[in-house]
């Protein structure tokens, strides 16, 4: 186009203004919907490849970032509870901890004990135990909480979490010194919760889940539920591997009756493709009840015997092919789309790329991420897609994980 034409067009656009231009687009779209949609997609992809959309642009023009089916779950908590929920450094959001408090205060049936895996310093343990204490259906029930209680952060990093609690008086003045060169946080955990009445419910157990089948054959003790444990609510934040998830779910589904609730933190964490893989594989057994941020609450709606998990869920993701993962994640994405949940749509797409990378299909994973970055659905999530495109997931090791680099 020559300069003269561009100058005429520019003046015309200026004279018409944004609203009239949009009306013209709208009228043309009534006549040729597909053609105009293609044109818009073309403009978005070619002119705005880095999609510099901010939150308000997305809400106003592209669609609500928040699920169209979002309810108004009362996440307000009594102010003294709120203060306590935000006191401990936690790797969960304040909304997630409030959901846990509400869940255990009013949605939990109050029967038996509660199982938690992966409390770290216990931000989530506190939310669960305080909620249990506020539940009017029961005044009993223990919180059995399992963790490695070590080897999560090296001592220098662990001290960064502990220092503010020592300075504010939540921990004794020698807390940092007691850590020394150890990565263990069991004693710190006990000290944080032991002084409170809710703490009497908590039973910390230093029994991790094995992260690989090979590990499971070596000496434990590995995660196991005490004999005759009765439990209808399981909070999962320590299943940081494919095999660990299988191991934990086999043990818990062995005692869980239909109606039990499984609450997964990190369900949308892009590295943790094993969580939605498990739920999707046994999709007919679980019903999604609610979610906030990356925490998803499912109800077990039919028995899932451990023998079935053993027979139908392999020890390693490599035993499944691309097609299997494609089917599982298409299912997860369709469900997200149906509830208008764009964040889940994008995160499940990333997790599918992670599964591809894990099973060795790195070329496929690379082209999947390239296409995802061009897809308008990922607008607003470019940073996380780019991060995942470099290293979408990890293999478990002694300190958590070894990134898989693409
Ligand atoms: C994301 S943090 C949990 C955050 C915590 N819920 C909070 O409120 O801040 C993950 C936890 O899982 C634990 N973990 C990692 N691998 C584990 C394993 N194999 N078995 C049990 N726990 C494990 C870690 O030690 C860590 O405490």
Low-confidence stretches: none
Structural class: alpha/beta
> Tell me, what is the CATH class of the largest domain?
Alpha Beta
**CATH-scheme architecture of the largest domain:** 3-Layer(aba) Sandwich
* N→C terminal distance: 41 Å
As for the number of domains, it is 3
Please give the number of β-strands: 9
- Any ligands, ions or cofactors bound here, and which? S-adenosylmethionine
Describe the overall structure.
It is a single chain. This protein has 406 residues and is of the alpha/beta class. The chain folds into three domains: 3-52, no CATH class; 70-149 and 185-312, Rossmann fold, CATH 3.40.50; 319-404, no CATH class. Helices cover 49% and strands 11% of the residues. It has 17 helices and nine strands. It has helices at residues 3-31, 33-47, 55-62, 79-85, 94-107, 123-133, 155-167, 175-179, 186-194, 213-217, 242-253, 274-281, 306-312, 322-338, 342-358, 362-374, 382-390, and strands spanning 113-117, 143-146, 202-205, 231-236, 261-264, 286-292, 295-300, 393-397, 400-404. The strands form two sheets. The chain has a seven-stranded mixed β-sheet. Strands 8-9 form a two-stranded antiparallel ribbon. A hairpin with a 2-residue loop joins strand 6 (286-292) and strand 7 (295-300). The radius of gyration is 24 Å and the shape is globular. The mean pLDDT is 92. S-adenosylmethionine (SAM) binds at residues 90-92, 117-120, 123-124, 146-148, 152, 208-209, 211, 237-238, 240, 244.
